[in-house]
Every structure is written in C-alpha cells, then in structure tokens.
Write a structure and sequence with these properties.
Shape: globular
Largest sheet: 6 strands, mixed
Low-confidence stretches: none
Distance between the termini: 37 Å
Helix content: 25-40%
Order of helices and strands: EEEHEEHEHHHEHEHEEH
Radius of gyration: 17 Å
Length: about 240
C-alpha cells in the first residue's frame, strides 16, 4: 500500500466569512502528482493557501504524513516537509538568489545538498547565486521559486499556476524536472494548473474543481482525459 503524504478531509475554507471551497476530500500518495483543474475563481488557489495555513480552515482537516496540521501556522507546516510555489512571485527581491535559498533551508538539508539539487534541476541559477533575486526575469523568477522549493528536501510540493507566461520549451523541461525529482525522492505533488497539455504530461491523476467543490476526477492516462478537462474548462 502506498504511503499517504497529504490527506485532506471535508475541508472548507475561504476569506472572512465567505466560504470559497467546500467539503474537499483529497489523498496524495508518496511519489504521486495530482492536478487540480478549473477555471479562474473556482477556489484552486484558495485550496493550496488553506492547506499551507495561510487561510483559516472553517471545517475539516489536513494531515501531512499522518501529522495533523489543521491548526498549524505556515512555518510549522513547512518544517513538516511542505514546500509551496505560489502564483505570486514570493521572494526577497533585495536579497541574492543564494540568500533567498539559505533562508528557506531547514536543518536536515545542507547548503551543499541544496546546491546539488539546484544544479541538477536549474543549472543556470548556480551562475546567478550572487545576483539580486528581484533582477531575474519573470520566467527566471518562477524557475527560481521552483528551485528553492525543490532544494529544501520537501515531502509534499504545492504548485500554483507555474506555467503562466512560460515559453513552451521551458514548460517541457519543467515536466522532466518535476517527474525526475518525484522519482528520485518520492515527492508528492499537488498542482493547480490551467495549462491542459502540461497537466496531461506531468500528472498521474486530476480532480475538477467547480465553484469550490470537486465535481469529478480521473486518471490522467485515460484516453479521454484531455477532452474531459477541456470540456470542464469551457463550461
């Protein structure tokens, strides 16, 4: 039986008194990549922010490798091995690339180990370690956010709309990087995405999110997956 690294049970969350996601149930096994697909405004980012502790959990529960995190703060959740790549460019612009990465490292991962991961996944960043992070181009900043999250030795990776604004060649390379790191470490990935070809290429399973609720799911390798996802996105 595959080990569950992320368990979401009957989760409802939102902003203020407004409920955005309702009764979400998800399981991600070690080494599994699951995509959450839906149009804008359906609650995809809210789901990731709630799991990561940035938004309150109105009801339900979340666990990382059987550790309950429903009442935990983001830095506590990160210490349990969860890394988050937000849609926003969340970096310290006036610090160097190296300084940004060192700030994210936990005690179990050394700087040399982090550099090895970065060199394997995004080698160009090794030449930019002393460059201010804010001076990287938009696409480079997104790759840097991915590199920083992979370098900390996470068990679970939450990714929000990483391909937005990326060139097709970079997206193809990103598919290889995510799958390679999954195979190396057993990383579990929850991916929010609207890029259907990318979703199909990188994920093992998908769930459809509609108005804050899961309306369907399936195996990405099914022959009609792209058609089902495209139809959902056009509703």
């Amino acid at each position: 039986m595959m080990q569950t690294v992320l368990a979401v049970d009957s989760l409802s969350s939102g902003y203020g008194e407004a409920i955005v996601i309702r009764n979400i149930n998800l399981r991600i096994a070690r080494g599994e990549i699951v995509a959450v697909v839906g149009k804008n405004g359906m609650g995809k980012s809210t789901l990731l922010k709630s799991i990561m502790g940035y938004l309150p959990k109105f009801s339900g529960s979340v666990a990382i490798a059987q550790h309950a995190i429903s009442d935990s703060r983001p830095h506590q959740i990160a210490r349990l091995g969860v890394a988050y790549v937000p849609q926003e460019k969340a970096l310290f612009q006036d610090l160097t690339v190296e300084e940004n990465i060192r700030l994210a490292l936990r005690g179990s991962v050394s700087w040399n180990e982090a550099k090895e991961t970065i060199g394997r996944c995004f080698p160009f960043l090794l030449r930019r370690l002393q460059q201010k992070a804010g001076t990287l181009s938009g696409g480079e900043q997104k790759m840097f956010l991915m590199a920083r999250s992979l370098a900390v030795g996470a068990k679970v990776l939450l990714i929000d709309e990483i391909t937005e604004g990326m060139q097709p060649s970079v997206i193809s390379n990103l598919v290889k990087i995510i799958k390679t790191e999954r195979d190396r470490s057993g990383l579990g990935v929850l991916l929010v995405e609207q890029n259907i070809p990318f979703t199909h290429a990188v994920s093992d399973r998908y769930v459809l999110l509609d108005k804050g609720e899961i309306s369907g799911s399936g195996n990405t390798r099914d022959t009609d997956t792209q058609e089902k996802i495209a139809a959902h996105m056009c509703l």
